[in-house]
Specification:
Blueprint (H helix, E strand, L loop, with lengths): L7 E3 L2 E3 L3 E3 L7 E2 L2 E2 L1 H12 L4 E8 L15 H16 L3 E7 L14 E2 L17 E2 L2 H20 L4 E6 L4 H6 L14 H19 L5 E6 L10 H13 L4 E5 L17 H6 L4 H14 L11 H10 L4 E4 L5 H9 L4 E4 L1 H5 L3 H6 L14 H4 L10
Parallel strand pairs: 3-6, 3-14, 6-7, 7-10, 8-9, 10-11, 11-12, 12-13, 13-14
Antiparallel strand pairs: 1-2, 4-5
This protein binds flavin mononucleotide.
The site of flavin mononucleotide has 24 residues, from strand 6 and helix 13.
Length: about 400
């Protein structure tokens, strides 16, 4: 266990141990501008002993937001994010941010036809009246990749130590990788090589803009978790390409938010709270009617992605971040034995930001998180928190 607390390099930066707080949407914004709660939240993670804390869902442009009041990277939010980065540094931590574009997962009513690789039905935003996506043109591809690069550059300039490019969970770059949503007939669709082309171009554009020393992590699906989606075999190819392109570390996850939202978390489905959080009566009603049949339940087990992640460990030599169901000393030992350099944690740290300090001093051996997943309901009720 002590080996997990030894310092190590992530590309050019030194991390004090192997632990990363993974991105879990905080919902701590006032009109899209990060508030003091968000700063305090990440400071508490750093004080609790994680080497690197990750701010979630940094939308790279107004259109990259899943809903209208979400944060996006621009001058006003950068001002607060700089205070956040400085505050985390003051308590000895390092900070990263997830760079994201939602693609067609949009309830942002400013955007009637959200961008996607192809024209597809928007099962995520249809209840907000946004029924179909618009296939991206060459100009869109150029503009979005530039937005990604500029956002990373601006964040580096205000003192962020790393960025995490979101290629998973069904968001835009994952929509390109997935044959389910990418039905393009040009060089960006069809074969795996073609589907991976745009996500890899975006990665390379960011790298060019921020310089080779600045760590860019990538969150990548092991698989989408349903027939007809991105597969583990395909993940091997993308992982190798990202290794060759100089990715600092791969954060391995899975699932597709509009189809298999609980594949990436496992455990309880807090249906009542999700329905209550619906933004209109129509949305609440439709959710109540259909959600119980549509949302699939996956039982929780510790280290639930380890079996799949081991296959990627055998495929690449680059640093890998294990994520998914880390909740005990025993589980951490198992991940280290399997050869992962970094360990990312979500719910055990939402439940208790001092989880690692307590593991380290031996006062606990296991998290008290029950995977009720009520924390996801709280994201939309003033900020993510554990209700236990
Ligand atoms: C409340 C909550 C919010 C989440 N928000 C995000 C997010 O914004 N971006 C993301 O990539 N993953 C998000 N996730 C998924 C987590 O990053 C992680 O993959 C998942 O919780 C499994 O890790 P764990 O078992 O350590 O919690 C979220 C998870 C939870 C519980």
């Amino acid at each position: 266990m002590q080996r997990a607390f030894q310092s190590r390099k992530l590309a050019s930066i030194e991390l004090k141990n192997s632990f990363i707080k993974t991105a879990t949407f905080e919902g701590m914004y006032d009109d899209g501008i990060p508030n003091q709660k968000l700063i305090d939240y990440h400071v508490s993670m750093a004080k609790g002993g994680v080497a690197l804390t990750t701010v979630s869902y940094g939308a790279i442009s107004p259109d990259a937001r899943t809903f209208k009041t979400q944060m996006y990277i621009h001058d006003d939010s950068l001002e607060q994010l700089k205070i956040l980065a400085d505050s985390v540094h003051q308590v000895g931590g390092k900070v990263s941010i997830q760079l994201t574009h939602c693609g067609y997962f949009s309830k942002n009513t400013d955007q009637k036809r959200p961008l996607a690789p192809s024209r597809v039905f928007n099962e995520y935003g249809c209840m907000s009246g946004i029924f179909f996506s618009r296939a991206m043109t060459a100009l869109d591809l150029e503009k979005v990749s530039e937005d990604f690069a500029k956002a990373a550059f601006d964040l580096k300039n205000i003192g962020f130590d790393a960025v995490e490019l979101h290629m998973g969970h069904g968001y835009l770059l994952s929509q390109f990788l997935s044959p389910w949503t990418n039905r393009r007939k040009d060089e960006y669709g069809g074969s795996l090589e073609n589907r991976a082309r745009y996500p890899l171009e975006v990665f390379k554009k960011i790298k060019q803009k921020v310089g080779s020393d600045f760590p860019i992590l990538v969150k990548l699906n092991l698989s989408d978790g349903f027939q007809g989606g991105f597969t583990l075999d395909e993940c091997k190819y993308v992982a190798k390409e990202l290794e060759d392109a100089g990715c600092a570390a791969l954060v391995l996850s899975g699932g597709f938010t509009s189809k298999t939202p609980f594949y990436l978390m496992r455990g309880g489905i807090p249906l009542k709270g999700m329905i209550q959080n619906g933004t209109s009566l129509a949305e609440k009603f439709t959710m109540a009617l259909f959600a119980p049949f549509i949302i699939k339940k996956y039982d929780f087990e510790p280290n639930f992605f380890l079996k799949q992640a081991r296959i990627i460990r055998e495929t690449v030599t680059m640093p890998l971040v294990y994520l998914g169901g880390v909740d005990s000393k025993k589980g951490i030992e198992e991940i280290l034995d399997a050869g992962f350099e970094f360990i990312s944690i979500g719910r055990a740290l939402i439940h208790d930001p001092d989880f690692l300090l307590k593991l380290k001093d031996g006062s606990i051996t296991k998290s008290g998180c029950t995977r009720c997943n009520q924390c996801i309901v709280e994201m939309d009720r003033g900020g993510v928190r554990c209700v236990i």
